[in-house]
Fold:
Amino acid sequence: ADAPKELKLDWAYWNPVSLVIKDQKLIEKEFEKDGVNVRWVQSAGSNKALEFLNAGSLDIGSSAGSAALLGKIHGNPIKSVYVYSRPEWTALVTRPDTGIKSVADLKGKSVAVTRGTDPHIFLIRALADHGLTEKDVKFVLLQHADGRAALSRGDVDAWAGLDPILASAELEENAVLFFRKPDYNTWGVLNVREDFAARHPDTVKRVIKVYEQGRQWALANPDKLVALLATQAKIPEAVARKQLTERTELTHNAIGRPQYDTILAAGEALKQAGVVDAKVDVAGTLDALIDPSFSSGLAGT
Amino acid sequence: MSTTDTLIAPPPAARTPLSRRWLARLPLGLVLPVVLALGWELAVQSGLADGRLVAPPSRILATLWALSEGFELWRHVQATLARVAVGFLLGVVAGTLAGALTGYSPLARRILDPSLQGLRAVPSIAWVPLFILWFGIFEESKIALIAVGVFFPVYLGVLGAIVSIDRKIIEVGRVARLSGAGLFRRILLPAILPAYLLSLRSGLGLGWMFVVAAEFMGASEGLGYLLLDGQQLGKPDQIVAAIIAFAVLGKLTDGLLAGASAPLLAWQDTYRKP
Amino acid sequence: MSTTDTLIAPPPAARTPLSRRWLARLPLGLVLPVVLALGWELAVQSGLADGRLVAPPSRILATLWALSEGFELWRHVQATLARVAVGFLLGVVAGTLAGALTGYSPLARRILDPSLQGLRAVPSIAWVPLFILWFGIFEESKIALIAVGVFFPVYLGVLGAIVSIDRKIIEVGRVARLSGAGLFRRILLPAILPAYLLSLRSGLGLGWMFVVAAEFMGASEGLGYLLLDGQQLGKPDQIVAAIIAFAVLGKLTDGLLAGASAPLLAWQDTYRKP
Amino acid sequence: MLHIDHINKTYPNGAEALRGVDLALEAGRIVAIVGGSGCGKSTLLRLAAGLDQPSSGAIRVDGEAITAPHPAVGIVFQEPRLLPWLTIAQNIGFYIADLPAAERRERTDWALARIGLAAYGPRWPRELSGGQAQRVAIARSLVAHPKVLLLDEPFSALDAFTRASLQDALLDLWQAQRPTLVIVTHDVQEAVALSNRVVVMQPEPGRIHSVLDFSLPYPRDRLADAFVRAERQVLQALDSSLAQPGRSPRPRREAPLQDPPLPALLPSHLIAV
Amino acid sequence: MLHIDHINKTYPNGAEALRGVDLALEAGRIVAIVGGSGCGKSTLLRLAAGLDQPSSGAIRVDGEAITAPHPAVGIVFQEPRLLPWLTIAQNIGFYIADLPAAERRERTDWALARIGLAAYGPRWPRELSGGQAQRVAIARSLVAHPKVLLLDEPFSALDAFTRASLQDALLDLWQAQRPTLVIVTHDVQEAVALSNRVVVMQPEPGRIHSVLDFSLPYPRDRLADAFVRAERQVLQALDSSLAQPGRSPRPRREAPLQDPPLPALLPSHLIAV
Ligand SMILES: Nc1ncnc2c1ncn2[C@@H]1O[C@H](COP(=O)(O)OP(=O)(O)OP(=O)(O)O)[C@@H](O)[C@H]1O
Ligand SMILES: Nc1ncnc2c1ncn2[C@@H]1O[C@H](COP(=O)(O)OP(=O)(O)OP(=O)(O)O)[C@@H](O)[C@H]1O
Ligand SMILES: [Mg+2]
Ligand SMILES: [Mg+2]
Structure:
C-alpha cells in the first residue's frame, strides 16, 4: 500500500523510545525516500495523546494500556499494536512522619490521586488486594504535581504518584514508597487509528520497525538515554536515572497475552471503582483494541 | 434608509402593530441554539455528520438526563454554583475597593496598578500550585481562585471608568466638598455605574471560567470536575454536557445580574434600553 | 481634608516643588514587586520560609537565565507572543463587529446575545476538545482559541457601551442622517472609545489567559507549554518563571496598548489623565 | 414647506408636552417661538426635526411625512452638543462630511471667522467657554445650508454684542438662501427683531396661545414706535399665556422686598481697572 | 469676605483666560459681572469656588487662602450639571446631605415650590426642559445657604416672567441671610436690576475693563431714569470693552441687509389658537 502524504506521530517524556527516535530522526530517515512529511506532536499525558488520535490529529500515538482501554470504551477508534516499554511508573507514597507502612494503614486516611490514570487504577487494585474499597479511604482528586504538593503540605496522608514527579519526591523529600507492584502498571503501548491502520498497514509496520531500532539503541546506551531524558525534560539526571534504570523495562515489544491480562484486570478494577460503566464488556472491548498482527513477528529483547 | 429594527429607527410608538408586539415577547434568543441543535441532530441522524466526537443533542440530553437521575448533575451544579457565588462576592468587593483606591489616588495607582496589570495576564491554571501552597486544597483555595478571576475585570472596569468620568460631574462633588469614601459613594460609583455593572458581568464570566482551574484542586464534584473527568477519561458526551451546563448557568446568572441591575440604570438617558 | 495625592486634589500646578516632580518620574510600579521579591528572598535565605515550592527570586532568576541561554526562553516567548498577537487581532475584529451589530440592531441583539452571553461563561479548557476537532492541533486552533478569549470582553464592552451612549450624542448623528456603518464609525465608535479601549485591554488579558488552554493542544513551545510542562513534571521553579514571564509580558503589552491609545483620548474632559 | 398638523405629544412618564398644535411654515419665513419655561418649545422642534415621534398628528416637509431626520431640515439644539472627540473645525464640518474636502474646508473657515473664533479651529470643545461652544453649534448647522433651520435658544449664552453679530450672520444666510427659520427665544426683543411671525406658546399642557404677525422693514429699528409696540404686544401675550387658569400659580415674590442697608462701597483703589 | 488678588490664569493649551484680576467682595454685596463671550467670567468664578488654581495670585475667603472648595462658597455652574442618577428632589438636596432628613426635606420642598416645579420632585433630570433643569440647578445651590454664592448665567434659559420670579427668589434669600452674591449675566438690565456693583470684563486676555457702582433703592423701577442711565452706562462700557485695540475685530454684518420680499402671510384659519 502507498505511504501517506503526512505522518503524525507523538513523542512524550514518558515514552523514552520516542525521545530516541525523534532525537536521531529515525522516522525521517526511514520515510525520506517516500516524500512523507513527518509531524511530531508532544503528548503531555495519555489522555492528550488519545484525544489527538480521536480527533485525527495524530496517526500513531503512545499511551498507557489502561488509558487506551478507557479511550476505546468511550468510542475512540484505535488499535493498540505495539509495546514500547513496561514501566513501573506508579507507586503509593507517603511522608515519613505519617506512620503509614502498608496499604492496610490507609483505612480512614486521605489519598491524593488523579482520576482515570494509571495511579488511580493502581490505587484501587492495591486497596482491593488488602480488602479495602474506595469507601474506606478518602480520595482527594488532584493533578499529579498538585498531589505531591498536597502531600508535602500535609493536606493528604498519601499519594498515588507518577514518575518523574514520584522520583523527584523520593529524591528530594524522602517520600516513602510504601507500596510498589510492577504488575499493576499497564504497559506503554503504541496506538494507531483504525482507519489509518486499514489504509496504510505498511506504514504502521515501518514505524514499528523504527521503534524497534530506537528501543535497541536505548537498551544498548542506558547512560545516553538518561542524559537524553534529563536534557529534554529538564529534570535532574538523578531523577531521570531512577525512573529509567530502576523502573522501566524496555525489553518488550510484541503486544499479546500478557498485556491483555494486565489491562483486563485494570479494566475490571475501573469497573468496580465506577469509572467504567458496569454494563461495559471489558473483555470484548479489549479484543477489539489489541491487534497483535503488526508486531507478532518481532523477536524479543 | 434605515430599517425599523435599528438603533436609529424611531422608538416603538403607539403605532406598533399587534404582530410586532407579539414578536417582541418571543424568546428569540432560543432560536439560534435550537436551530443549531436541530441541524446537528438531523445531520447526524441522516448520516451526513459523524456524531462520535460531538454527540447529537439527543445523546447529550440523554447524558444530562442520566446525570440528573440520582441528582448527580444537580450536586455538581450546586457545588459549582456555591463556589462561584462566594468567589464572585469576594472578587467584586476586592476589585471594587482596589479599583476605587487606584482610581481615586494617583499615588496608589502608580504603586499598585503596574503589578496588578501584570498579574491580570496570568492564566488561571498557573495559580493552581501557588494557591494550593497558600490555601491548601480545600474550599478556601477554590473560592480564592474564583475570586481572583472575578477581581481583575472588576478592578480594571472600576479604575478605567473612574479615570474617564466627566470632570463636570466630579466638580459637583467637589463643591459638596466630598472626598474619600463620600466622593466614591455619592459621585464616582453612580457615575461609573453602567461601566461598573458591565465589569461585574465580565467578572462573573471569568468566575465561571476559573471554576475549572479551581476544581483542578482536589474537587470531587462540580461542573469543572465533570469537564475534567470527561476530558481525562475521554468521554465526549460528558464534556459537551458540561459545556452546555456552563453556558446555561452562565447565561442564567448573567441574565439575573443584568436584570437585577437594570432598575439601577433607570435614570440613563440612552437612545433605547438594552 | 484631602491629601494632595487624591483625585480631588488640585491638579499639579506650577507650584509643584522639585522633589515632587522628581518623584513623579520614579517608576513606582517597580517598588511593590521588588519589595516582595526581596522580602521572599530574605525569608528563604534566613530559613524563615521554605523555598522549595515557591523558589526565591535568586533561583527563579537562575531558571530564567538558564532558559534564556541558548535563547530557549526567547523561543517560547516568541511563539506565544505571535499566537497572542494574531489571536488578539482576530478576536478584536470579531468582537467589535458582533458588538456593533448587536448594539446597533435590537433584533440581532435578541437573537445573538443570549447565546453569546452563555458561551462567555465556558472555560477555556472546555473548548479544547471542540477546537481540536474543528481546527486540528496546529497553529490554527491555538490562534482560534486565543481569539475566542479576546472576543468576549470586547463583544461585551462594545455592546454595553453602545447601549449606554447618551441619547443627545446619537441625535447629532441622526441629524446628520447617519445610519449603519456611518453612524458606527462617526458616532458610536468614538463615543464608546474609552470603554472600548478598556475592553481591548480586558480582552488582551484574556488572550494571555487562553494561551495555556491553547498550548494544551499539542504545543511544544510557548509560555503556556512551559507552565504545563513545569506542572506535569513537577518543576516549581519553571512554573514560577512562567508566571513571571506571563506577568511581565502581560504588563508590557497592556502598557503598550494603553500607551498607544492614550492620544486617541486626548479630547476627554476628565479630571485627571490616567 | 413644513406643516405641523394637529400634533399631540405625551412623554412615556405621562407629561403632556404638546396638545393639538398646528403650525404651517412657508418657505422663506422667519418664525419666532416664545413661551414660558417647559411649554413644549424644544419638544416641538425635536418633532419637526424628526428626532421623536408625535403621539398623534403628523409633520410633513413639502408634503412628505417625516418620521426620521429630513435632509432639508437642520436643527441647533438647546445645548451645544459638540462632539467632544472632534476639534472645533471638525465639529463645524460634521454635517457636511459628504462635500468635497476643499469646499468643506472653505465653509468651515468662513464660519469660524464669522463667529469670531478664527483661531479656534484646532481646539477641543472642552477648551471653549459656554458662549463659544454655542457659537460653534450654530456654525455647524449654518454651514449645511438647510432649507429649514430650527434654532432652540441659539443666542442665550451670548452677550448683547456677540449676539447681534450672530443675528446678523443668520439674517445674511437668510437673505442669501431664503431658508425657513424657526427660532425659539426668551428674548422678546430678539423675536421681534428677527421674525415676521411670533408664536406664543403656553404651558401645561404645551399648546399655542397666539400667533402674532408683523411686517416691519429690515433692518429693524429697535427704537421705532412700531417695533416697541410689537414688542409690548408679544410681552402681553406671553404674560397672559402664563396666567392662564388651570396652570399652577406663577411663582411670585413671597414678601415685598425691603431696601436693605447696603454695605459701604469699596474704596476704588482696591479695584484694578 | 472674598478677595481676589492679582490673579493670572493661563490654561495648559496656552489660552490666557485671566490677566491681573483684582476684586474684593465684602460680605452682603451683590456684584454682577458682564463681559463678552470668552472673557474669563466662568474661569474667574471657578477659581473663586476653589475648583481650579490660578497660575499666579491668590484667592482668600475671610483671609484664608483657598485651594479647594470652601464650605462658605457655593456656585451655580453655567450648565445645569444635575446628577443624572438622582431625582430632581435628590438633586436639590445634594449639597445639604449632612442636614437632618426632616430639614433637608423641608428645604427641598420649599425650593421645588419656589421654582415652580412642586410636582417634579420624583422625576429624572433627563425628563426636564432646559429651563426647568436650570431652575433645579439654582435651587440646589440656594438651599445650601452659602455665605458667598457665585452664579454663572443662572437665568439664561428662562423666559422673562420665570426669570423675574427667580430673581425675586434670589433677592429674598439675600434679604434673609445677606450672602455675598456674584452674578455673571449677559443681560445688562438684569445686572443693573440686581446688583450694587457691575464689573465689566474684556476679552483676550480676560481682564477687568471697569467697575461701576450704583446705589439704586430696592425694589428697583426699571423705567426710572436712574435705572436707564445706569443701564446705558454699563452697555457703553461693554461696547468699549469689546472694541479695545489688540482684540480681533468684532464680527459685523458683511453687507447691509436688504428688506426681502416677504411671503404672503398664512390665512389665519390654518393656525390653531
Ligand atoms: N479648559 C480650558 N482649556 C483651555 N482654554 C479654556 C478652557 N476653558 C476656557 N478656556 C478659554 O478661556 C477663555 C475664558 O473662558 P471662560 O469660560 O472663562 O469665558 P466666559 O467669560 O465664561 O465666556 P462665556 O460668556 O462664553 O461663557 C476662553 O477664551 C476660552 O476659550
Ligand atoms: N424626555 C422627557 N420625558 C418626560 N418629560 C419631558 C421630557 N422632555 C421634556 N419633558 C417635559 O415636557 C415639557 C416640555 O418640555 P420642553 O423641553 O419641550 O420645554 P421647553 O419649552 O423647551 O422649555 P425650556 O424653555 O425650559 O427649554 C416639560 O414640562 C418637560 O418637563
Ligand atoms: Mg427647551
Ligand atoms: Mg462662561
The mean pLDDT of chain B is 81. The pocket of adenosine-5'-triphosphate (ligand 2) is lined by residues D 11, 13, 15, 17, 35, 37-43, 78, 206; E 126-132, 157 (CB under 6 Å). Chain B touches chain C through 101 residues (CB under 8 Å). The radius of gyration of chain B is 23 Å.
